[in-house]
Amino acid sequence: MSHVTRRGRPLHEIETWVFDLDNTLYPPSIRLFDQIEVRMVSFIQAELGLDIEAAHALRQEYLRRYGTTLRGMMSEHGLAPEYFLDYVHAIDLSAVAPAPELEAALAKLSGRKLIFTNADVGHAERVLDRLGVARHFEGIFDVVAADYRPKPDRIAYAAFVERHGIDPRCAAMIEDQARNLEPAHVLGMTTAWIPGGPHSSEVDPNAPHIHHVVENLAAWLAGVKPAKV
Q1: Integer Rg of the chain from CA
Q2: Residue 197: what pLDDT?
Q3: Architecture of 32-88 per CATH?
Q4: Distance between CA atoms of residues 118 and 115, nearest Å
Q5: How many helices and strands, by DSSP H and E, does the chain display?
Q6: Tell me, what's the pLDDT at 217?
Q7: Rounded CA gap, 123 and 119, in Å?
Q8: Which of 105, 131, 151, 219 has its CB surrounded by the most CB atoms within 10 Å?
Q9: In whole angstroms, what is the distance from residue 145 CA to residue 158 CA?
Q10: Which residues, 6+ apart, have CB-to-CB distance to 228 below 8 Å?
Q11: Angle at 173 between CA 167 and CA 178, to 5 degrees
Q12: With contact defined as beta carbons under 8 Å apart, do 68 and 118 qualify?
């Protein structure tokens, strides 16, 4: 099901579909980020010699100030990002099951399909493989490609649009983090928010930067009518 607020470009006219990865292509109930959060805290403990409470507090502080824990560690401690990304994404993906309904909907959906994620390419590729949908995506724009500027940093969006030659007015972006849709909306993209993730209760679904509220991604995509010839 989805609630449509009747703004944005008609979906049959969308030429480029931009998908977030975590908590978007799979249900937030899988809670992969819980594993990543635990590993981020343990990384900070080992790297800075902190106890678990102090490491957790510092992670939250860096998330608030810099947008991601990684950006905070890079800015404040000169951390080599590859080391951090490899460590925190070494998680158990067994809860991510094949998604045949999503696969079928993506196969039917016309237009380019891209991933735009704050994770790295390796993590994205592993998740897409588990879901069985990797073949549908022509590119992955990760935090490395964004020069470690996380969504919703508008510089990252500009770099993404330029890298992939996207006309934002003919693109749609699907995200579980409503704040990450604001820069997309400013650029002229049609936006779709998937509720159920962290802080969903704080989101106003009628906010002007949210065009669609999507409860079931596969069903919503499957309902997109083909472009008229």
Answers
A1: 18
A2: 77
A3: Orthogonal Bundle (1.10)
A4: 10
A5: 9, 7
A6: 97
A7: 7
A8: 151
A9: 12
A10: 12
A11: 135
A12: yes
Domains 2-30+96-222 and 32-88 are alike in CATH topology: no
Residue 165 C-beta-side C-alpha neighbours within 13 Å: 2
CA 116, CA 18: separation in Å to the nearest integer? 7
State how far the Cα of 126 lies from the Cα of 13, in Å rounded to an integer: 31
Q: Quick one: tokens of 127?
A: 């998740």
Domain coordinates of the chain in residue numbers?
2-30+96-222, 32-88
Q: How many CA atoms lie less than 13 Å away from 1 in the CB half-sphere? A: 2
Omega into 10 within 30° of 0, i.e. cis?
Answer: no
Q: Taking the mean position of all CA atoms in its chain, how far away is CA 91?
A: 17
CATH superfamily, with its number, for domain 2-30+96-222: HAD superfamily/HAD-like (3.40.50.1000)
Q: Count Cβ neighbours within 10 Å for each residue of 8-18 and write b for 16 or more, e otherwise.
A: bbebeebebbb
- Is-contact 40 119, C-beta < 8 A? no
Q: What is the pLDDT of residues 7-43, one digit of tens each?
A: 789 999 999 999 999 999 999 899 998 999 999 999 9
SS3 assignment for 69-132: HHHHHHHHHCCCHHHHHHHHCCCCCCCCCCCHHHHHHHHHCCCEEEEECCCCHHHHHHHHHHHC
**Alpha-carbon span 155 to 187, nearest angstrom:** 12
